[in-house]
Design brief:
The protein is α+β, with helices and mostly antiparallel strands. It contains 14 helices and five strands. It is elongated. Belongs to the binding-protein-dependent transport system permease family.
Length: 363
């Protein structure tokens, strides 16, 4: 049995490798996953939530560069290395966009940047810290994808925002698997009144629009990062439960289940050790589709303002903040996060189709 299982697994893997779009989507998802985990390593603005605002340089085009005066702060912060990598740097430095400057000893005379051709306020700063080179306080920053309406680096917000869209899929699918497999297994294996009660609950849940149910759960649990993850997961278990139930109804009539009962194995072992491993192929395909659905639901919630809350970066929230710029001559502010959502969802759908073809024993 073990040799047969291994050979079937190898056959499925060979079929999957022959699917170009499936393999491409797999590597794309791995790439996005790495970006999500190490977003603050790759982001030009590695401050917490990539939330460095410069209102004077809002809505600038991709490739925009400007001199930035970095004023050190007397506030001392202690932050671990891993904390910086995974949660962003606690930035106490004040950044001031400047259009002109000159350095005279330890004094910097500068003109603050003002958009629309206006002249900014002229100011001066005296560097009293002899350990810091005065010239090092001025640096040139390039915003490769431009800035959003608050003057934040759009590229950094995109990279950090990938974390929410990517990880909500994992959390939501994990929750839906736990509930769906349990409910579907109990309903399909035992049948009778237990099946009737569970199916009634499934049908009631199924009849409520997904987005409406997520909004209700979110409002009950409160707005926040983990609340959205849990709310999305609690609405996606129904399809998993229906598929598992149907597969178990068919599988429990098989000879290997009858043999397991004859050997005196208890119901829990029969379900977990004998039936579930043989019916997981369609469940895996559903999980890939649920990944895509979870990303879309979270984006919709963020667009409505009840998803991840500011200043946390989210692709859906970025579209919400900038959708009106589509008719104001800067559509890329909304189109870029929209394309990110589209490509990630498409990758999960394509890998789902590839897994379906690879796990189909009839082909």
């Amino acid at each position: 049995m073990s040799t047969k299982t291994n050979s079937l697994s190898k056959l499925a893997l060979q079929k999957f490798k022959k699917n170009f779009w499936g393999v491409f989507s797999f590597y794309f998802i791995i790439f996005v996953g790495v970006i999500s985990v190490f977003a603050y390593v790759f982001a030009p603005d590695n401050s917490k939530h990539a939330n460095q605002m410069h209102v004077s340089i809002h809505s600038k085009a991709p490739g925009f560069s400007i001199n930035m005066l970095m004023l050190p702060s007397q506030i001392k912060t202690k932050q671990g290395f891993l904390d910086k990598i995974f949660f962003g740097k606690i930035n106490t430095v004040t950044e001031i966009p400047i259009s002109e400057y000159n350095i005279n000893g330890n004094r910097i005379n500068y003109t603050e940047y003002a958009s629309d051709g206006l002249k900014g306020i002229e100011k001066s700063y005296i560097n009293k810290d002899k350990s810091i080179d005065t010239e090092a306080l001025i640096t040139t920053k390039t915003f490769y994808l431009g800035t959003d309406k608050y003057g934040r680096d759009l590229l950094s917000r995109i990279l950090v925002g990938a974390r929410i869209s990517f990880f909500i899929g994992f959390v939501a699918v994990f929750i839906s698997l736990l509930i769906g497999v349990f409910m579907g297994s109990v309903a399909g294996y035992f049948g009778g009144k237990i099946d009737a009660v569970i199916m009634w609950f499934i049908n009631v849940t199924w009849s409520i629009p997904t987005l409406l149910l997520v909004i209700a759960i979110t409002l009950a649990l409160g707005k926040g990062f983990w609340q959205v993850f849990i709310a999305v997961g609690l609405t996606m278990w129904v399809e998993v439960a229906r598929v598992v139930r149907g597969q178990i109804i068919s599988a429990k009539q098989m000879q290997y289940v009858t043999a397991a009962r004859a050997l005196g194995f208890n119901n829990f072992r029969i379900i977990t050790k004998h039936i579930l491993p043989n019916i997981m192929a369609p469940v895996i395909v559903i999980c890939a589709a649920n990944f895509a659905a979870a990303i879309l639901i979270e984006s919709g919630l963020s667009f409505l303002g009840i998803g991840a809350q500011p200043p946390m970066a989210s692709w859906g929230a970025m579209i919400k903040d900038h959708y009106n710029y589509i008719i104001l001559g800067k559509p890329y502010l909304a189109i870029i996060p929209g394309l990110c959502i589209m490509f990630l969802v498409m990758a999960f759908m394509l890998i789902g189709n590839a897994l379906r073809d690879a796990l189909d024993v009839k082909n």
